[in-house]
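Objective 1b. Sequence-to-structure analysis of Efflux RND transporter periplasmic adaptor subunit.
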Amino acid sequence: MRNICFFLLVSLAAGALAGCDDSTKGSEAPQLRVALVAPVRFAPLAPPRRFIATIRPRIEADQGFRVAGKVMRRVVENGQRVREGDLLATLDETDLRLQKEQADAELAAARMALKQAAADEGRAQKLRKDGWTPQATLDRQRAAAEEARGRETRALRAVELAANALGYAALRAEADGIVTAALVEPGQVVAAGQPALRLARSGELEAVVALPEAFAALAGAGSARLTLWPFPDKTYPARLRELGAAADPVTKTYPARFSIDGADAAVAIGMSATLAIESADARKAASVPLAALFDQGQGPSVWKVEGDGSLTLAPVEVLRYEARTALLARGVAEGDRIVALGAHKLAAGEKVRPVAADAL
C-alpha cells in the first residue's frame, strides 16, 4: 500500500512538472528571421562632374616693340594696372634719331633737286615754244622733272617711316588692363616683335579648365556653376564659350573656357576655383545591391520591409546593371526599406527582424 502511494505521488509531481514545461513553451514568442535592410536613396543618373579651374581674362596678349633695339627702361612691374596709352617701356633712341635725321636730309635734297628740275623743264618749254630747242630736249627735261618728283615722294615716305620707328621706341599700353608678365629687363637687346610685356585686358573674366576626352563633347550640354576657393560661399553660373579642337598631346585633355555670369570684384585673375558641370539628363535612379533583386519569372523585384517587419514584393524597373549594384528607375520610393541580402530565401507576408546593413 505504501508503495502504491509513493508511486501516485511521483506521478502527480511528474505531471505537474510536465504541465509547467508545456505552459512555458506555449508562452515563448516565435523567433523572427534577421534580414539586412537598406534605405532607398535616389540620386541623379549622371552626377555632377567637378574640375579645377583657373580664372583668366578673356583677352590676354603679349606686347612687343615694333623695332629692334636696346631696352633703356621698363616703367611698369608685374601686376600693375595700366590705362590705354600709358608708357610701359622704352628703347635707346640714338640710332632711330640718326635714321630720322638722314631721312630729313634726303627729303631736303630731293626737294632741291625737284626745284632745279622743274625750273629746267620750264625753260625747255619756253625754248621749244620759240623754236630754239628740239622736242627731244624738252622730253628729257620732263623726264628729269618726273624723276625728281618721284624722289621727293620716296624721301617723304622715308621721313614718315623714320618718324614712326622713332615713335615705336616707346611701348605703350594698347588698352586698359593689368600687366601679368614682364618679359624684358633694362639693357636687354630685343628683336622687332619679341614679347616684352603680357597685358590682360580689363573686362570679362573666364574660367579655364582641362576636360577629359570622354566628357569634352558633353560639356556644353549641361549647366555649370563656379565656386571660388578663397570664397566657398560665392558661386556663379558659367557657360561654355570655347572648346579646344585638339587634345593636349601629353594630358589628352581638351582646353575649355567658360564665361562667368555676374562676376563681381571677388573674382580676380589667377584665382583657383571649382567648376561643377551638371548633366542635362534630369532623371534620377536608386542604386541597390544586386543581391536585393529577386526574380520569380515575372521580372525583377525587391522585398520591401514594412513598419511591422512584414515583407511586400515590389516589381521594379532596372535601368542598368553595374559591377555590384543595379540602378532602379521606379517601383520603390525615397526612404523605402528593402532587403539587401538573401532575397531569394524570403516569402511574401513573412515577418523579419530588420537590421541596418550599414550597422554591421
